[in-house]
Write a structure and sequence with these properties.
Shape: elongated
Largest sheet: 16 strands, mixed
Number of helices: 13
Distance between the termini: 87 Å
Number of strands: 18
Length: 537
């Protein structure tokens, strides 16, 4: 073994590669998947090969590039493939606990087959090959020469987690990182750990590319059944691996570096890691602080225009007819909304959904120039009685008056945190206001979301809600509607917890960007007729 090769040398190599990973933050203008492929080739594999050349080490022998045999190869693949759905579920739980808001991630997904192929190459080919040569073939191999196998696996696994420069992803891949180290040590084969890495990343690639290739990949590979199958595959893989191999003996390294000299590269790498995950934690917990406010152009509407929509419940049953009309009145736009809903009670895989018989009429106005809401009135006729909610906005404060046949009148006043910065999206009118967005895939902005009267989870009562939300744009994507298959921009409004789930709207790609579809988290409204009706004003 070369005198240059030891834990101190590979610690410096790790620091260099980690610093190179930070360069990705300055290359965000490069398309996502070519950037990932180049990163693996130039910032992971190339430094690893240069290190081996500098140290004078033979590649095959050093990294243990040897045939593990078909049983070990199969076991290794099963371990990685089985761990993927488990990692996804644990990641979802961790995301919920951390309170992350991962805005704009949809824009990073492949939008066409060519991008899908690049995604598969990046995830399922380049990452397993390059990262295993670096993390197991060089780093863990060096650590095995100084520490016990268990400690070497833990240390190399910890560095592999740091390498990904993400708190959420790092916590999610803990089982996989340890499994990769164990497979590499137990089999004495880099090919085996590459197959484990490939098994996990191939599943990830199928999910990431599901919108362009296998449409059902997410529902099949990320489900309670897939988690159960994953546990069986992982357990069976480890059993087959242990029964097909014998534990590799420890081979002490002749090189001994001591104290701070050996540790300082890792201490510096740890500091870089803490800075990056601190930034991640802050930006994903409080994304509204790191994005510009949403801006919309002036509403281009000369004549009154109306559209008819169908409302569908979670079981896709039609439950309401909706008529919407926009009328220009000088510097304002008036929205008229009429809907008749039928009662329903349906059970779906996602839960039970219920709705009552209700007729709604709403009239509200917003500024033509910037979409800012001005005032509105909503009347609801239910089986049990009538409600009426009136509201107005002076640019800084909302004033709400709610009347109900079942309870005394209620009056509320709400103030914006910063009225000079953000657009306010009123819960009924925002899908029409955002028709004037500067549509571009990856667009992210902040706004306020205002609902005049709703159930407030935080205070366990009814009343108005106004909170900051993120507005994200992705697409164009293919959208099927009763009027035909169309290309559409997808706009997601991340609603506050007090209101419920995020809302999503789809708009025609071509101006004037007709609202084609809207999902409020419970029901979906779809354009029922392609041609709108225009009326002389």
């Amino acid at each position: 073994m070369s005198q240059r090769h030891g834990t101190y040398s590979v610690n410096i190599l790790f620091l260099i590669v980690l610093a190179l990973q930070l360069l990705n933050f300055f290359l965000l203008s490069v398309p996502q998947y070519p950037r990932l492929i180049l990163n693996e080739a130039l910032f992971v594999l190339l430094p690893s090969l240069l290190y081996l050349r500098w140290a004078g080490l033979p590649f095959h022998e050093t990294v243990r590039l040897r045939n593990p045999g078909w049983k070990v190869a199969l076991a290794s693949f099963f371990i990685g493939a089985g761990l993927y759905p488990i990692s996804i579920v644990s990641g979802a739980v961790l995301n919920m606990l951390l309170g992350y808001n991962l805005a704009g991630t949809e824009a990073l997904l492949p939008q066409n087959p060519s991008e899908g192929v690049l995604a598969i190459i990046a995830y399922a080919v380049m990452a397993p090959l390059c990262e295993e040569i670096f993390s197991r073939g060089i780093i863990q191999r060096a650590y095995e020469g100084r520490f016990s196998p268990g400690k070497a696996i833990l240390l190399a696994g910890g560095l592999f987690i740091m390498f990904h420069l993400s708190l959420l992803q790092g916590l999610t891949i803990i089982p996989l990182s340890l499994a990769l180290g164990y497979v590499y040590w137990r089999s004495s084969s880099l090919v085996a750990s590459i197959l484990t890495h490939f098994g996990a990343n191939a599943m990830a690639a199928l999910v990431v590319t599901s919108n362009v290739f296998w449409k059902d990949a997410t529902s099949v590979l990320v489900s309670p059944l897939s988690v159960g199958i994953g546990l069986l595959l992982t357990g069976g893989g480890f059993w087959l691996l242990r029964n097909s191999t014998s534990a590799a003996p420890k081979k002490p390294n002749d090189v001994r570096s001591k104290g701070f000299k050996r540790a300082w590269p890792l201490l510096l790498a740890g500091l870089l890691y803490l800075i990056v995950i601190g930034y991640e934690f802050t930006t994903t917990r409080f994304p509204e602080r790191f994005h510009d406010p949403v801006t919309v152009g002036a509403t281009q509407l000369e004549n009154a225009t109306a559209w008819n929509y169908e409302m569908h419940n979670a079981a896709d049953d039609p439950v309401a007819e909706v008529r919407c009309r926009l009328e220009p009145e000088g510097n304002t736009i008036v929205l008229h909304w009429e809907s008749v809903h039928q009662a329903y009670d349906v059970q779906t895989p996602g839960g039970r959904y219920m709705g009552g018989n209700v007729t709604k009429e709403e009239e509200l106005s917003f500024r033509r120039a910037d979409g800012q809401p001005l005032q509105g009135t909503l009347i609801g006729e239910f089986d049990w009685g009538r409600t009426e909610t009136e509201w107005s906005f002076d640019g800084e404060h909302f004033f709400i008056h709610h009347k109900s046949s079942q309870r005394p009148d209620e009056v509320f006043e709400l103030a914006l945190e910063d009225s000079s910065q953000s657009l306010v999206l009123e819960s009924t009118s925002w899908p029409w206001v955002l028709r004037s967005l500067p549509f571009a895939s990856g667009y992210v902005g902040t706004a306020y979301y205002f609902k005049p009267y709703t159930w407030r989870q935080a205070t366990q009562d009814n009343g108005p809600v106004v909170e900051r939300v993120l507005v994200t744009v992705t697409g164009p994507e293919t959208l099927g509607t009763p009027t035909g298959t169309l290309q559409a921009w997808k706009v997601k409004v991340g609603c506050p917890p007090a209101v419920g789930q995020a809302e999503t709207a789809w708009y025609s790609v071509d101006a004037p960007h007709v609202l084609l579809k809207h999902h409020n988290g419970f029901e979906t409204m779809v354009l029922a007729r392609d041609a709108s009706q225009s009326y002389d004003h």
